[in-house]
Amino acid sequence: MRILIAAAGSRGDVAPYTGLGAELRRAGHDVALATTDAFAPLVREAGLEFRGLPGDPLGHGSVTGKRELMRAAAAFITDLGQGFADAMSDDTDLLLLSTTTAPLGWHLSEATGTPSLGVYLQPTAPTGDFPPVVTGSRSLGRPANRMAGRLALRMADRLHTQAVTRLRHRLRLPPVSPAEMRRRQERANWPVLYGFSTALVPRPSDWRPGLDVVGNWWPRHDPAGRLPTELEDFLQAGPRPVLITFGSMAAGEGERLGEIAVRALRRAGLRGILQAGSAGLAADGGDDVLAVGDMPHALLFPRLAAVVHHAGAGTSAAALRAAVPAVPVPVSADQPFWARRLAAVGAATDPIPFRSLTTERLADALDLVVRQQTYARAAAGCARHMATEDAAGRTVKAVEQLTDG
Question: Could you say which architecture CATH assigns to the domain 229-387?
Answer without folding.
Answer: 3-Layer(aba) Sandwich (3.40)
